[in-house]
Amino acid sequence: MGALLCLALAAAPLARAGTRDMLVPLMAGEYALQAGQLDAAARWYLAAAQAAEDDAALAERATRIALLANDDLRTAQSLRLWRQRAPQSEAMRAAIATLALREGRLRKARRELEALLRSPDPRGWRYALSALGGGRDPDRIARVLGWLVDDGAIPGELPAWQEFGRLALRLDDAALTRRIVDQLADRFPEEPRVAVLRAGQLQQAGRDQEARAMLRQAEPRAEHDPEVRAMLAMAYESLRDYGQAARVMAMGAQDTTTYSVRASLLARTDDTDTLGALYSELAADASKPDPSRRLLLGRIAEFLKRPAEAVGWYRGVPGGPQRNEARMRTAVALHELDRKDEAYAEARALQDEIAASGDMRRDAYLLEAELRQRAGEGEAELDALDRGLAAWPDDTHLLYARALAWERRDRIDRAEADLRRLLVSEPENVAALNALGYTLADRTTRYQEALELIDRARVAEPDDAAIADSYGWVLYRLGRHEEALVELRRAWGMMKDPEIGAHVGEVLWVLGRREEAQRYFDEARRLDPDNRALRRALQRFGLPGRGT
After folding, report:
1. Which distant-in-sequence residues (6+ apart) come within 8 Å of 533 by Cβ?
2. Can you say where the TPR repeats lie in this chain (predicted)?
3. Which residue, 175, 348, 474, 531, shows the most beta carbons closer than 10 Å to its own?
4. Are 48 and 25 in contact (CB under 8 A)?
5. Spatial contact of 405 and 373, defined as CB atoms under 8 Å apart
6. Between the CA atoms of 407, 412, 414 and 419, what dihedral angle is there, to the nearest 10 degrees?
7. Are 17 and 10 in contact (CB under 8 A)?
């Protein structure tokens, strides 16, 4: 109880610790928050804020928790207390705007957002951006953002226009994105970042060739500006034009990092000739035992499907921190050569290497498990992880890997046991909270329990795409389809992932919006036709799978 009391008091530093009427709900609210019970946390924090007279900090925290809980009624009540106790601030205006968006009071939201955008505080536009992002309904957000653009309310600085343009892209509103990008081009005609944003808008509209042409216009700046070079390469990569991305990265001065990026990009194309030429260029300059260069040559040899040469490069890495990494890669290359026993022996030697760091020895167990999985040796995979946990009890990486291994075998009970064991040692491990919550939502009917776990992850990382996807998915499983769609579309806007795309498609299909659903299924199939969530969704609805 002492630790919980400290947490509660830390959460509201201005609270009157002697006020019993405030302290009890405050502790209850913090306990509910730590347990992922956001509905209860919002209720208790409001009660604490009501009991603590004149405590603006506690009213603000109650408002933020109610917003996270999507509890509009308690958000309004907490916000009213906050406004009574403190002068209006940018943070308060942002909360007012977010609530107005959620309640459909769009003109109210517009006024508050315009006030933020006119604020003398240079962070004002960032508060406005955050407020829009919390609005939940993409159509409402796009409508209000369109008004702000028409009113000329967005500050005349490039970063602000860039971020509002990216928001429009995430909203999947092609017309709005075009309007913002057109204004960007008028205001900053020579800025290559504008060309990249316009390319994203054209790509969104399915006009990939025009997007590539727009990127080429910005290329002259790439040779002398590494930031522009990296930005253009990422834009080409988003178009899945990996060869063009590698070509841009070849501009200007080169070092091991740029060579590595070029090699990894070329490995994703069918252009083995260009990759081979890069390999030959680097190999000709590898007479001195530069460990980073030899590691890179080994990786390129692997990309070129020359595992025997890769082994040679890795064996030639001299002593030092790169030596153990080279040995790990040696095991992978040996496995590719079908010399599996030697590969496993290499991994085991590292497991027993006293001179190696603890993390490296632990990673050697993970490596052996991964190689066993690739070979279809399920029992041996689990054995490697069991041995790793015997050497490194309660290691979070090993427990997480074994939980995933159990989940792939449909042993949800064992997967859950490992994730809960992990959470005993690291109660706030966000990846484990999200993984367990998603597993329970996806593979069981324990939806409320799943929601609480995912909410604990959301408290820590409210804008993480994977967590937003899990949250949307559990809402779908709870039958809250419209709410689920909002969260899943938000996750898709943050990260174009095949599993998220499959989830959006499934919810749309169930809502009867089948043409739109098919678009998401097609996009997910393009990203990864073998994705498990996608295959399950297509099978569930009797839709054609890969290659059809």
Report:
1. 498, 499, 502, 503
2. 498-531
3. 474
4. yes
5. yes
6. 80
7. no
CA distance 412 to 436: 10
CA dihedral 503, 508, 509, 510 (to 10 degrees): 90
Reported as a single tens digit per residue, the pLDDT across 291-343 is: 889 999 999 999 999 999 999 999 999 877 788 899 999 999 999 999 999 99
CB-CB contact of 479 with 511 (8 Å):
no
Mean pLDDT score, 465-476: 96
- DSSP strands (E only) in 376-482: none
Q: How far apart are CA 163 and CA 130, in angstroms?
A: 11
In terms of Cα–Cα distance, which of 492, 483, 438, 485 is closest to 465? 492
- Asked if pLDDT for residue 15 goes beyond 80, the answer is no
Overall pTM > 0.90:
no
Number of continuous H segments (helices) and E segments (strands) in the chain? 32, 0
Question: Are 396 and 425 a contacting pair, CB within 8 Å?
Answer: yes
In sign, the C-alpha dihedral spanning 448, 454, 460, 465 is negative
Q: What is the mean pLDDT of residues 36-65?
A: 92
Structure tokens belonging to residue 69: 């809980």
**b/e burial code for range 452-473 (CB count within 10 A of at least 16 → b):** bbbbbbbbeeeebbbbbbbbbb
Binning the chain into helix, strand and coil, the percentages to the nearest 5 are 75, 0, 25
Beta carbons of 430 and 462 less than 8 angstroms apart: no
List all residues 6 or more positions away from 371 whose beta carbon is below 8 Å from its beta carbon.
331, 332, 335, 340, 343, 344, 347
At which residue do the structure tokens 């990569």 appear? 237
Give dist(CA 232, CA 228) in Å, integer. Answer: 6
Q: How far apart are CA 531 and CA 520, in angstroms?
A: 13
CA 391, CA 404: separation in Å to the nearest integer? 20
Task: Give the pair of three-digit tokens for residue 44.
Answer: 């208790």
SS3 call for 410:
coil
Report the SS3 class of residue 42: helix
Number of neighbouring beta carbons within 10 Å of residue 193:
20
pLDDT tens string 72-110: 999 999 999 999 999 999 999 999 999 999 999 999 999
Cα–Cα distance measured from residue 377 to residue 344, given in angstroms and rounded to the nearest whole number: 12
Please give the backbone phi and psi of residue 354, each rounded to the nearest 5 degrees, phi first. -65, -35
Q: What is the pLDDT of residues 254-289, one digit of tens each?
A: 988 999 999 999 999 988 999 999 999 999 887 777
The CB density around residue 34, as the number of other CB atoms within 10 Å, is: 16
